[in-house]
Amino acid sequence: MTRRRGGRAWREARAAFLATTDETNCWLCGRHVDRTLPGNHRWGPTADHLVSLMDGGLELPEHGAVLRLAHNRCNAARSNTARARTGLRPLGATGHASREW
């Protein structure tokens, strides 16, 4: 069975990490993370992979993935930076790279 980010296993691992971590600041920007904000808020808390999945990081903590506390915004910006660094185009609304006409 393939485990995918966004699936139940990832949501459970993320929730467990956020409930047990002692971190209080975003590891990317260094500012305080308000854990009372909802998970979909731009400054809300999220679990970020120390080694991004795109760079070969592991998906789930039980497989050895190292997670760090981050703001959603900082995590998303890091992802976009990784895409730019590797020359990949941003994904479109369908989740597929757009075609150049």
The helical percent reads 25-40%
What class do helices, strands and sheet pairing give?
alpha+beta
SSE sequence, one letter per element: HEEH
Distance between the termini: 37 Å
Shape: globular
Q: How are the strands ordered across the major sheet?
A: 1-2
How many helices? The count is 2
Low-confidence stretches: 90-97
Mean pLDDT over all positions: 76
Largest sheet: 2 strands, antiparallel
Total count of strands: 2
Radius of gyration over C-alpha positions, nearest whole angstrom: 14 Å
DSSP strand (E) fraction? 5-15%
Please state the oligomeric state of the protein chains shown: single chain
Q: What is the strand and helix layout of this fold?
A:
Blueprint: H1 8-20, E1 45-49, E2 67-71, H2 72-86
Antiparallel strand pairs: 1-2
3D architecture notes:
- 28% of the residues lie in helices and 10% in strands.
- It is built from two helices and two strands.
- Strands 1-2 form a two-stranded antiparallel ribbon.
- It is globular.
- Residues 90-97 have low confidence and may be disordered.
Features of the shown structure:
101 residues, alpha+beta, two-stranded antiparallel sheet, 2 helices
Task: Give a short overview.
With 101 residues, the protein is an alpha+beta fold. It is 28% helix and 10% strand. The radius of gyration is 14 Å and the shape is globular.
